[in-house]
Amino acid sequence: VQLVESGGGLVQPGGSLRLSCVASGFTVSGYRVSWYRQAPGKGRELVSAIISTGGRTNYVDSVKGRVTISRDNAKNTVYLQMNNLKPEDTAVYSCRAQAQWADGTIEDYWGQGTQVTVSS
Fold this sequence. Notes:
It is built from no helices and eleven strands. The chain is mainly β. The strands form two sheets. Strands 2, 4, 5, 6, 9, 10 and 11 form a seven-stranded mixed sheet that branches. Strands 1-3-8-7 form a four-stranded antiparallel sheet, with no helix packed on it. It is elongated.
């Protein structure tokens, strides 16, 4: 069971990046998938999430209108499209997959993170 993020990098302010979170060993469509970020010296922050049923999404206020979370079930992948990036978006971005099943089993997986740096 694994989550692997990619797509981070160095981008100028106003630029765009698309982060990918590829799941292996389980079917991500049955899970709530979230993107978190942690900037140097700060706590981890929930950026966005997409639920398993219906695809409802939510975003932290600081990224609303600039960030879109989406899921490609055929690729077992969740994406985070980030536009109009700002220096304050600089952080390590990690994805998380969570599920609680009818029998009470809880699953909670994290990726290793990908660095996003927004700087001129």
